[in-house]
Design a protein that fits this description.
The chain has 363 residues and is an alpha/beta fold. It contains 15 helices and 15 strands. It has a seven-stranded parallel sheet with strand order 3-2-1-6-7-8-9, with helices on both faces. A six-stranded parallel sheet has the order 12-11-10-13-14-15, with helices on both faces. A two-stranded antiparallel ribbon has the order 4-5. α1 crosses α15 and α5 packs across α7. The longest helix has 16 residues. The termini are close together.
Length: 363
């Protein structure tokens, strides 16, 4: 049994771990995999073949957010203190489960819990990621000093990890004693672009995808995009309840995609430009699909400047402010990226590299 713990903060941790597990499954078709996460189970069940168990578990608290763009530091502190209060009991319960399941290795992306549980159960631990929560909390502690304690706690726990598989776009991962670097782990479309556009009934005019992860933009008024009448605009995730969408904007739910036989990477590959906040998941989805990206800022999240700096070497990108997104003022930015060629993709073999290292550790 391979035991996996995945942060539910955003979808990027889950989607890249699922890609790694897909690569593991190709090499080890009979290996039992158990995933504990607060991310939606379908992110794993639609990617990784059985034997697979996905069970709901809050592995960490990440950062609380008002919406996809605004961090709530006060709520983060409250969540962290509650999580820390139950830490010892949770570690003990999870270690008993792993021993009972016959688990042989623990993989984490990238909650400290995975390292702590592995240590308690007497198992080796591998971490996967481009940032760790000690680095995030230490940065946010400049505005919310109470998170300095969380940063120190996470750093101490991470120090017991046997191996970190470090991905590109990395922050300070100095808490981990042993590190190996990997290329990008990225999803790629499985349905050709024109076929995907046909299934989605998209016309010849440019298509813009507004995508802000699982949190979404609950206060976003779709009507602000009505002036972009010469474009097709797709919106995934929550928007303002009761707001009426203009004729050129189409809300698109995951269930609709799945009914069309499409995954989210196929949607990214079908559109011309994605408008989003930069996170590892959406940036690598765009790189894997060769789709241009218009991005906005995401508050005091230290991964942001690293992604902004690095993604510009792999994609045509342009910036718009949060207020411009909320007011629908994205035309200039979209037109600027549409006028630029997409460069060839970088090495995207990170999932295969991670799978090889995980199976080596299992052996």
């Amino acid at each position: 049994m391979l035991a996996v713990y995945v942060s539910g903060h955003g979808y990027g941790h889950a989607t890249r771990t699922a890609e790694v597990l897909r690569a593991v499954r190709r090499r080890a078709p009979d290996l039992a995999v158990s995933v504990a996460t607060s991310a939606p189970a379908f992110l794993f069940t639609e990617t990784v073949a059985p034997p697979l168990l996905v069970r709901p578990l809050e592995c960490d608290v990440g950062l609380a957010q008002h919406d996809a763009l605004v961090i709530d530091t006060g709520a983060t502190v409250r969540r962290w203190r509650a999580f820390r209060a139950g830490w010892d009991r949770l570690v003990s319960e999870e270690a008993r489960r792993l021993r009972a399941d016959g688990s042989r290795l623990v993989l984490g992306d990238i909650p400290p819990l995975s390292t702590a549980v592995a240590s308690e159960a007497g198992l080796r631990s591998i971490a996967l990621g481009n940032f760790s929560w000690d680095w995030i909390y230490a940065h946010v502690a400049s505005a919310e000093p109470a998170l300095a304690e969380a940063a120190e706690f996470c750093r101490d726990v991470y120090g017991g990890t046997d191996l970190l598989l470090r991905l590109p776009f990395a922050g300070d991962l100095g808490a981990f004693p042993r590190t190996e670097d990997l290329p990008l782990v990225a999803r790629r479309p499985t349905v050709p672009r024109e076929e995907a556009r046909g299934r989605l009934a998209l016309g010849p005019s440019p298509v813009i995808l507004l995508s802000f992860g699982g949190v979404g933009m609950p206060d976003l008024d779709p009507g602000v995009f009505a002036p972009l009448a010469d474009w097709q605009v797709l919106l995934t995730g929550p928007a303002r309840e009761g707001a009426r969408a203009p004729r050129n904007l189409r809300p698109l739910q995951g269930s609709e995609l799945r009914a069309l036989g499409l995954g989210y990477p196929d949607l990214v590959g079908a559109v011309d430009v994605v408008v989003s906040k930069p996170g590892y998941g959406i940036v690598t989805d765009c790189i894997g699909a060769g789709t241009r990206l218009v991005y906005t800022d995401r508050g005091e999240f230290p991964e942001y400047p690293i992604l902004v700096r690095e993604m510009a070497g792999h994609l045509p990108v342009a910036f718009v402010s949060n207020e411009d997104v909320r007011q629908g003022r994205i035309r200039d930015a979209v037109e600027s990226v549409l006028g630029r060629e997409v460069p060839p993709p970088p090495d995207l073999s990170g999932a295969d590299g991670a799978a090889s290292r995980i199976l080596k550790a299992l052996d």
